């Protein structure tokens, strides 16, 4: 066997170039087969110190290994409920050979959704009034959570804003977000139930982590807001407590206790630390929610009931473009006391009814309305709509009309006529 090894000549041993050796004899071939060196991996390179084979992409992370020697694909497969849609095939993130041109350079089907999960407030055009007390409470809560690591005090993660219906809790909060430059993720109570057990709880954790990514990747403040949470988690009479209700409550309690360690089903990693994100709830009656969730250590509660001055200031800013003076606004508010803020917005909206009906008649009546609204060509323009001239008399007339409808609903209970056995 020693003679066989003498036949194999490696050119790299010589400093000067030599001619290629003659073809080996059959004896050398047979010896080489019996004593072939062990196979080498693609990253071993040449023994002569030559360059290693070029990788498929310099930006690829598929071959990166962690401290335990496991690559990215292994960790991805360990995550629960993974369908690879969270990674996608985006150019520059994975190897170009996997990101074809048939769907464009970015063939990640959910990338656009993930980018737009936050809420922007471009639709809030104009000057609105924000109640000072409301602003102080929301701003203080957001700032406290972002500097919680600097404070030697327990900072509740959740701020619960509750109060009467139509008092502007959600709208005032959005105005504060716009003023502070906060890019929040806003959820609805309708998302807290699903036909699949555990989905709403996982959705909350995903939205919380998405808000954390906004802070880390975009350098913007973010917040998780859930509107009308008592409608989704509250217990009214003999309503049923579902598994999803329990999981959502447990998820929110766990977020409050561990705001920087949020799992969405994957294996725990020491480096997976989430940025602390403030959470804001709005609702009408928090007494219907599971008591341990709203305890003082987890939730800071704020009862919002606008004063007469707050209502006048908000309505005055609402009617400012219509030429209604502040004195007239005070008269409207005093004429209809004990009404929610949205009542005064509905008054203004109802004054448009006559002008809209006149606009319909001027454009061919109800018979041709569909053609005008839905089937008009791109080069055609809809007829100009002239808004009505707002007056104090018109606002009062609309207000009395709305008040009459409210009283009819409370006094005329037709359900008693249809269901004779209904209880009072």
UniProtKB/TrEMBL annotation:
InterPro entries: ATPase_AAA_core (IPR003959), P-loop_NTPase (IPR027417), RCA-like (IPR044960), RuBisCO_activase_AAA_helical (IPR048571). It is found in: Plastid, Chloroplast stroma. Keywords: ATP-binding, Chloroplast, Nucleotide-binding, Plastid. Pfam families: AAA (PF00004), RuBisCO_activase_AAA_helical (PF21228). Residues 161-305 form the ATPase AAA-type core domain. SUPFAM superfamilies: P-loop containing nucleoside triphosphate hydrolases (SSF52540). Residues 17-63 are annotated as: Disordered. Its main location: plastid. One of its GO terms (cellular component) is chloroplast stroma. Activation of RuBisCO (ribulose-1,5-bisphosphate carboxylase/oxygenase; EC 4.1.1.39) involves the ATP-dependent carboxylation of the epsilon-amino group of lysine leading to a carbamate structure. Belongs to the RuBisCO activase family. This is Ribulose bisphosphate carboxylase/oxygenase activase, chloroplastic. It comes from Eucalyptus globulus (Tasmanian blue gum).
